[in-house]
Inverse folding.
């Protein structure tokens, strides 16, 4: 791990120059479909009386756009680059290995910026139009239904829920008072896990009637307002056995 | 690659490849143009994600299980959050900023924040040329803007708020940070000192701290400015660059540190005396800035006679000088808020229209230096060195409240007192009077700082006046004369009896002796004989 964070500076030292090229979305999508070694096209650099003209030609096979084959829209092939200067800004390129090691290396410095623009053509216009149509569709749509929805009426009492409720009540019945010692055991084991309990939670855990439970709690525990929102029950200090506390009982 | 021949242009074709299975993710590291970053100069670099934004789960929650926990707390908390619509953002490691450290500990540090929206509508690709001439294009996954991190100390939000409230009063903003640094040093020093010293320090500190913060600053400033002026006089004069000041400040900070440690032993019962001195000033000045000083008025009364007069004269001279010196003061690094405050006071005095016949710059310089000296002494602890020096002087002048470093006050009186103390007390490194510039004009002996170095007795070889704000020494006279031609009357005015503690006859005698020794050149201006020196 001593290497972690260490930046490999070979690229910077060699002053490797790279180009930063802004590429339209559709083109990058096409490039993602490249097969084999990843050849996507050809870059032509012409030096015309001092001015360099750079243009990129997309490979034929990559002009088919997914999802639009039937519409006969193809990505344009010619893309001249507009060259720009880096300005005063220093742009360095660094890489991270995404798998496992996370090594960071400085690959080089940007010496030239460029924007890849499609050559204006019929096919490009069509493509753009389709894109715009798609993006202008609203995400949410209001639709009129022909038939009213009838399968979720709001009954006065939820039938399914009601039935379930009644069944539960019948099953459990009134909570029976169990043996005091048993209840105490249950309480102590509960309080071992957490210090503060809500009365409802205790009723749930012990399955005892509230009044009975409260009596028992009054014996062994204290009801504290605690300043925090809920009023909670906790064991009396002498019954506690938490770390840091010395008194124990039972 | 096919090359096309053409008469006026040449074209070459390169294949472009977009490698598919690269494990490396490319990102852009953008630096600001103004930072002038050259990656090839880096010898070593480390970069890690800045994880400070990650909130550990359960960090703020109650202990889970056993003591202190509530049953179902987590669920309740979550339900509560949902009810109120509190949405906590997920912590994504990918989006966290980078911390880049270049060239190890002493090098630069950068923070790289991810720039959003880069990959939304267009993709960036990095085209690199391969050895075989083809281009390879890699998509850029993230763009991080790297900005340099300040290594120097900056103010926290609270401190900044504090300073903001003081911005109208503070003239010299450069010294704000310096003061803080010195304060820290002081605190550090105190911890190291032994108990006896600790006791003293506490006393001093207590006194100083109990007072207005500014007081302390002033004292510091006073101390520092003398140093400042002394050291920088030869160099820049008034146009010190900030950087320079900082360096000097640091140097002075160290000096102060040493001084404080040196002087701490000497400070002894300065508290009361000091405060008394300041009180006098307060009564004379109508400055409302020093509240703590008001508490000291009673003490001030005790101070021997000369102080009132001295302060008065100081005030007068200061007023005229204020305008001049303001600029200088601003330059001085050590000047804390106190100094600017003082300057403002001076300005007020000026505007009040009190006209003074006293020599312009000289007297002002004197006063200013006195003022600054006082200020310097006041900082409670920083000044440990200086202030203590002053206080220790007390011994040599019974009945005179020694200037407590802690009790610095902005008032002229306090300054005068401090000067007095300072002169009596040997100052360590000489210097720190805030009135650096002024000190230039004034004889070094007059500033407490420089004089501080010498023994409680006036510097040997110089005039003897007992500790006073302005010592009538050869050095002092020399300085005046170098600065501008002066008549004997002017010179006498400079060394007012109240300030020097000499009687007028004594002053005359001493001055005459000094002039004999100096043998200045004479010239007649306005039918008056002026003396001047050239060096």
């Amino acid at each position: 791990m001593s290497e972690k964070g260490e930046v490999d500076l070979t690229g910077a030292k060699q002053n490797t120059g790279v180009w930063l090229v802004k590429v339209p979305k559709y083109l990058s999508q096409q490039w993602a479909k490249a097969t084999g070694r990843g050849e996507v096209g050809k870059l032509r650099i012409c030096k015309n009386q001092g001015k360099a003209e750079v243009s990129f030609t997309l490979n034929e096979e990559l002009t088919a756009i997914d999802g639009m084959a039937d519409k006969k829209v193809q990505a344009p092939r010619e893309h001249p680059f507009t060259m720009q200067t880096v300005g005063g800004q220093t742009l360095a390129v660094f890489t991270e290995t995404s798998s496992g090691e996370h090594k960071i290396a400085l690959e080089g410095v940007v010496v030239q910026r460029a924007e890849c623009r499609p050559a204006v053509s019929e096919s490009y216009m069509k493509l753009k139009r389709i894109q715009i149509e798609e993006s202008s569709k609203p995400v949410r749509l209001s639709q009129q239904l022909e038939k009213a929805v009838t399968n979720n009426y709001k009954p006065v009492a939820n039938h399914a829920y009601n039935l379930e409720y009644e069944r539960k009540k019948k099953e459990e019945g009134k909570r029976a008072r169990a043996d005091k010692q048993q209840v105490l055991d249950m309480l102590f084991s509960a309080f071992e896990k957490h210090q503060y309990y809500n009365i409802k939670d205790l009723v749930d855990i012990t399955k005892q009637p509230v009044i009975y439970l409260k009596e028992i709690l009054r014996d062994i525990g204290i009801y504290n307002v605690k300043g925090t929102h809920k009023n909670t029950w906790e064991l009396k200090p002498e019954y506690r056995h938490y770390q840091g506390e010395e008194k124990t009982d039972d | 690659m096919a090359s096309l021949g053409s008469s006026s242009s040449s074209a070459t074709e390169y294949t472009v490849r977009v490698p598919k299975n690269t494990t490396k993710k490319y990102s852009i590291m953008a630096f600001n143009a103004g930072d002038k970053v050259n990656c090839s100069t880096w010898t070593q670099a480390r970069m890690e994600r800045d994880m400070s934004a990650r909130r550990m789960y359960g960090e703020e929650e109650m202990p889970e299980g056993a003591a202190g926990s509530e049953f179902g707390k987590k669920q309740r908390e979550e339900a509560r959050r949902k009810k109120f619509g509190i949405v906590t953002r997920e912590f994504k490691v990918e989006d966290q900023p980078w911390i880049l450290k270049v060239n190890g500990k002493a090098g630069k540090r950068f923070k790289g924040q991810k720039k959003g929206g880069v990959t939304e509508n267009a993709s960036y690709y990095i085209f690199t040329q391969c050895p075989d001439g083809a281009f390879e294009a890699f998509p850029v996954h993230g763009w991080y803007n790297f900005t340099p991190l300040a290594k120097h100390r900056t103010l926290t939000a609270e401190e900044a708020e504090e300073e903001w409230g003081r911005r109208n009063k503070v003239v010299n903003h450069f010294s704000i940070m310096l003061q803080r640094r010195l304060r820290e040093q002081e605190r550090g020093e105190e911890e190291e000192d032994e108990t006896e010293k600790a006791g003293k320090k506490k006393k001093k500190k207590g006194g100083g701290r109990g007072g207005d913060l500014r007081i302390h600053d002033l004292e510091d400033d006073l101390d520092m400015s003398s140093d400042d002026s002394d050291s920088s006089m030869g160099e820049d004069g008034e146009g010190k660059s900030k950087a320079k000041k900082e360096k000097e400040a640091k140097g002075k900070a160290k000096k102060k540190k040493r001084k404080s440690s040196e002087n701490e032993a000497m400070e002894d019962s300065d508290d009361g005396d000091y405060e008394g001195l300041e009180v006098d000033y307060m009564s004379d000045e109508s400055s409302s800035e020093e509240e703590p000083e008001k508490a000291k008025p009673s003490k001030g009364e005790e101070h021997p006679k000369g102080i009132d007069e001295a302060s008065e004269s100081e005030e007068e001279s200061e007023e005229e000088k204020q305008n001049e010196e303001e600029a200088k003061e601003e330059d001085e690094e050590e000047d804390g808020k106190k100094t600017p405050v003082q300057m403002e006071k001076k300005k007020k005095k000026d505007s009040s229209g009190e006209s003074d016949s006293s020599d312009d710059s000289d007297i002002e310089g004197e006063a200013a230096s006195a003022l600054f000296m006082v200020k310097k002494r006041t900082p409670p602890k920083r000044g440990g060195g200086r202030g203590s020096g002053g206080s220790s002087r007390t011994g040599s002048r019974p009945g005179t409240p020694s200037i407590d470093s802690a009790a610095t006050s902005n008032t002229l009186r306090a300054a005068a007192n401090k000067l007095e103390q300072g002169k009596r007390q040997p100052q360590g490194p000489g210097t720190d009077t805030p009135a650096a510039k002024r000190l230039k004009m004034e004889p070094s002996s007059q500033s407490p700082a420089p004089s501080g170095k010498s023994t409680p007795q006036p510097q040997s070889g110089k005039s003897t006046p007992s500790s006073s704000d302005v010592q009538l020494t050869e050095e002092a006279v020399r300085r005046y004369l170098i600065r501008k031609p002066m008549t004997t009357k002017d010179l006498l005015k400079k060394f007012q009896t109240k300030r020097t503690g000499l009687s007028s006859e004594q002053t005359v005698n001493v001055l005459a002796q000094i002039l004999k020794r100096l043998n200045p050149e004479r010239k007649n201006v306005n039918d008056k004989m002026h003396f001047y020196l050239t060096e």
Remarks:
- Chain A has two domains: 7-134, 177-239.
- Chain A touches chain B through 72 residues (CB under 8 Å).
- Helices of chain A lie at 10-14, 25-32, 122-136, 159-172, 180-193, 199-206, 210-220.
